[in-house]
Sequence to fold (365 residues):
Amino acid sequence: MNRCPAIALAALLLAAFPLLAGEIRPDQRRSGYSFMAPDTKAIQDDDTANPGMLFVLDGQTLWTRKLGAADKSCADCHGDAAGSMKGVAARYPAFDKALGRPVDLEQRINLCRANHQQASPLAYESHELLALTAFIARQSRGIAISTGDDPQLAPFVAKGRERFMQRQGQLNLACANCHDDNWDRKLAGSAITQAHPTGYPLYRLEWQTLGSLQRRLRSCISGIRAQPYDYGAPELVELELYLMSRAHGMTMETPAVRP
Amino acid sequence: MASALVNVPPKAKRGDIIEIKTLMSHIMETGFRHTAGGDVVPRDIITSFTCRYNGTEVFRADFFPAIAANPYLSFFTIAKDSGKFEFEWIGDNGFSATASATIMVE
Fold:
C-alpha cells in the first residue's frame, strides 16, 4: 500500500519531465549548421557549390514568367524580389486575414497564384514550388527571424508548442524529447540538433534534392512511428510557426545544406 | 530546366593554376531502383562532361550511376590566354546542356 505514493510521485515526475527539462536558453541556441562537418559547411558556404542555388536560379526564372488566366508574373506585382521579398521569409508563417489562420510561404505562393494569377496551385515538393520558395527565402539570407511578432498568431504558436511537447506515435516520443532535451547528443551517429528551421527550403544530401520544412517534419513524425499529417495540414503549419518563433532572432541561411 | 553554376576566376596571371568549379542540376537516377509496383526506374544520368579552353579540351570526365544528384566538379588548369571556357554535359535520354565563362589573363 505504501508504494502507492511513490508510484504517484514517479508518475508526477514523468509527467513533469518534458516541462522541467525545458526549452533551450536563448544564448544556447545553435543553428543546425554548427553541428555539421567542415566539408558540409563548405558546400553551404560556397554559392557555386551549394546545390540549393540551382533551385534559386530556377526560381528567379519562374519569378518573371507570366502565367495563369491573368497572364501575370510574380514580378508584375512584386517587382524586383531583391527589394520586395527581402525579409519576407524571415517572418513566415504569417497570419492570413481571409483564412483566419497562419499560412506558410508555400501556401502564400499558392494563394497568390490562385487569387492574383488565376493559376492552378503547385504541388508540395514540386520542383517549381521549391524553386520559387527557395528564391524568395534566399532574399532573406542573413536577416534575423521575426516570425511570431504578430499578436494574432499567439494562439497558433501555443498550439504548435503543445504539439511539439506532445508525446505521440509507437515510440511515444515528443519533438521536445530529442530537440530540447538531447540536442547535444547523437542518434545513430548523427547529431540530433536543436531543430531551428533557419535554412528552409534546404538541400539535404540524404534527399539528393531541396526539401521543405513540412517534408522534414513529416520524416521526423514517421521516425517516431506516428501517422504524418498531410502536406498543408494546419497542424504542420502550426508546428512550423512554433519552430520559427522558437528560432526568433536567429539568422536565415536559405538555401542551407544539411547532411 | 537544366540550370548550371560555373565558377571560373574572372582574372588570373599568366601561368597561374586556377580552380574551376561546376555544378549541374540533374536527378542522376541510377537505374537500380524499383517502384512500389516492382518496375525498374529507368536509368537517367549524365554520362560525360567536357571543358574546353579556347577550343582546346582541358578536362573530361565520365559519369556513372553512383554519382550523386546535381553533380559538382572541381578541377584545375593553367591560365594561358584570355578567352572562353566552354562546358558541356551529355547524358541519357538526349540530355545535353552547355555553359560558358570568360577569363582575363594578364
About this structure: The first strand of chain B starts at residue 4 and ends at 7. Residues 4-105 of chain B form a domain with the Immunoglobulin-like fold (CATH 2.60.40.10). The two ends of chain B are 36 Å apart (CA to CA). The mean pLDDT of chain B is 95.
